[in-house]
Amino acid sequence: MREDRRSRQLARIEEMRRRSEERLQAQLTRIDKRYDHARRRIMANGGYPSDDQQRIISAALELLNEVGLEELSLRKLAGKLNMKAPALYWHFENKRVLMDYMAEEILHEKFPDMPEPGDGQSWQEWFVSVIKDVRAALLTYRDGGLVAAGVNPQRAKTYARLGAHLLTVLCTHYGMDFSEAGTLVPTTLLYTYGSVIEEQNSPSLEDLQKTGLSVENYFPQDMRRRIAEVTKGLTQTPDFFEQALELIIRGVA
Predict the structure, then answer these.
(1) Structural domain boundaries of the chain?
(2) What pLDDT does residue 111 have?
(3) Rounded Cα distance, 139 and 141, in Å
(4) Backbone angles phi, psi at 145, to 5 degrees
(5) pLDDT for the residue numbered 206
(6) How confident is the model at residue 236 (pLDDT cuts 50, 70, 90)?
(7) Is-contact 134 194, C-beta < 8 A?
(8) Residues above pLDDT 90, as percent of the chain
(9) Which whole number is the average pLDDT over 130-139?
(10) How many Cα atoms within 13 Å fall on the side-chain side of residue 135?
(11) How far is CA 175 from the centre of its chain?
C-alpha cells in the first residue's frame, strides 16, 4: 500500500518535470524566433551590416591576416572579440555568411565608388585598370581570393554592382556588343579570382624545384628546354597577370 503511494507520487513528480520541460522548450523556441526575426529585420535593412556586425567583420579580417582562412573559426573570432561564440551566431548564421560580408568589405575598400572612364581612355585601358584594382583588393588580405570565391551578391553588394557597372559602361559608353561584353566581364572576373587563389595558395615554381620536381620533366624530351625557358620567364615576370589579361581582351578587340 505504502509502496503504491510512493510510486504514484514519483510518477506525478516525473509528469510535472516533463510538462515543465515542454513549457520551457516552447518558451525557448518563441525566444529564438523573436531574436531571429529581429536579426533578419536588421540584415534586411539594405543588406548592410550594423555597427556591431561591422566590428565583427573588421576583427575577422584582422584574424584572417593572422591565421588564414582555414584556421579562421567563429570560436577564435569570439575569443579575439572577448565574446561568447553563440553571440556571433546571432549576428551571422554561419562562417559562409560572415565570409560574404568580409569579401564585401575587401572590395568596398578599393571601390567605395564605381570607376568611370577618363577622357579619351580606350575601353581596353579602362577595363584593365579596373580589373587590376580588383586583383589588388583581393591581394590586400591573406586568402582574399578564397574569401571572395562563391560570394552571395545579395550580401557582397559591391561585387554585383561592379559587374553590372563594367557591363553597362562597356555597352553604353563604348558601344560594345552586349553579348560580347556579357562574356568578357564574367570571364575576366572569374580569371582574376582564380588567379589570386593560385597566387596566394600554390607553391612557387622555385619551391617545387627545391623539392627536386621540375615542371619540364612532364613534357617530351624535345620540348623540355623550351618549357624550362618559359617557366623561368614566368617566375621572373611580375606582370604575367596582365599579359594573360591582354590575351582575353584581344579576343574581343
Answers:
(1) 1-44, 204-253
(2) 96
(3) 5
(4) -65, -40
(5) 66
(6) very low
(7) no
(8) 50
(9) 96
(10) 22
(11) 32
Residues counted in the chain: 253
> What are the helix (H) ranges across the chain?
2-43, 51-67, 74-80, 85-91, 95-110, 123-139, 144-148, 157-168, 178-201, 205-210, 224-235, 240-252
CA pair distance 40, 48, nearest whole angstrom:
12
* Cβ neighbours around 66 below 10 Å, total: 12
Of residues 204, 56, 196, the one with CA closest to residue 137: 196
Summarize the confidence of residues 5-25 as an average pLDDT. 79
Can you give the pLDDT at residue 211?
A: 64
User: Over the stretch 182-199, which tens digit does the pLDDT of each residue have?
Assistant: 999 999 999 999 999 988
Q: Residue with C-alpha cell 580606350? A: 122
Average pLDDT over residues 145-155: 91
SS3 141: coil
- Grid coordinates representing 176 are 560594345
Residues whose CB falls within 8 Å of the CB of residue 133, separated by 6 or more in sequence, listed in order: 110, 111, 115
Q: Give the span between the Cα atoms of 69 and 25, in whole angstroms.
A: 36
Amino acid letter, residue 209: Q
How crowded is residue 83: how many other Cβ atoms within 10 Å of its Cβ?
A: 18
**Which pTM was predicted?**
0.72
Q: Find the helix or strand (DSSP H, E) in which 94 lies.
A: none
Furthest-apart CA atoms within the chain: distance in Å = 103
Q: Which set of grid coordinates corresponds to residue 218?
A: 612532364
